[in-house]
Amino acid sequence: AAAKFAHKVRSGALEQGFEGSRPLDMYQIPRMFGTTRVPLDRRDELRNDDSSGHCVVFCAGIPFVVPVLDPATGAVVAEADLQMQFDYIVVEAAALASSYDRTHSRGVGLFTTLERNEWAAVRRLLAQDPVNSDTLQKIDSALFAVCLDAQCDRRRTQSATSRAMLMECADNRWFDKSMAFVCGADGAAAVTFEHAWGDGAAVARFMTEMWADMTGTPPPPFCRPLESHGTLEVAACAPPAPLQWKLCEELRAKLATTATWHQRQCANVKLHTLAYQRYGKELAKAARVSPDAVVQLAFQLAHRRLHHQVASVYESCNMQFWKHGRTEAIRPVLAALETGGGKGG
Is 303 a known active-site residue? Predict the structure, then answer.
């Protein structure tokens, strides 16, 4: 479904999006595929390859290239063939993991968690070797990333799953990629995306159409169902081979310190998911109260009870009604909240 949507975008067949009756600016969506945020000195650069037809699959910290789309014809890989490729990668990555620790390098995606100028210097050193340069090019140009967390705990809690999807397992990620599908052995799945190229509204459009295609349900009213323009034959091809890294001693040492640094960063983040069952948005709407306002005030009340003051918070505002509009920040806290919230402190 993702490959079919990518071809729809690239072939110019993507329908105009709307919110209600208002048209949305569509310039972000073509940058969703084949894009990577590349670190440079004191700045980053978005690089896009609009002719790629492969995805990069990470498993046990080892990247593999898997073809999913013929850019010329729009033919996409069959689901059964894709499953076969993924099954092979899971087995192959497990077999390679121990030998890679001794003779090769894996988990290089950890470098993408570094501060950007530091990562730029590391990437320059990496790219000096032709083997690494070729691997970087294949990752950068990939339509998207797929991260198979084959070794995850099948009994993990929802909070643990959320941590893994958002920040942990960084040795099996490439956070510079425009978009990644993260899949655990427990069946949990998530979509993560790098924020420089676009915003959540663009990803929501993609996910809505992808979900409709996967489940056989109708797409949004202004969209045609996703189409496959033939089947990309991969079953007869050679199995996916792992991409290679050649790390000098300096880079190996840096990778080890980066892993320790990232673990400390994750330890500084508290995350817990709560499924609140007593009431939801329908009760708020029945009382003619904004559900968003209820949640925002709940945040403020909790913060005041903990810290004895209200906080300036961020709320997103979609500006896609205007040319090249992005997500802007609203600061919704009013002075009245301070006086009205005192009773809960």
Answer: no
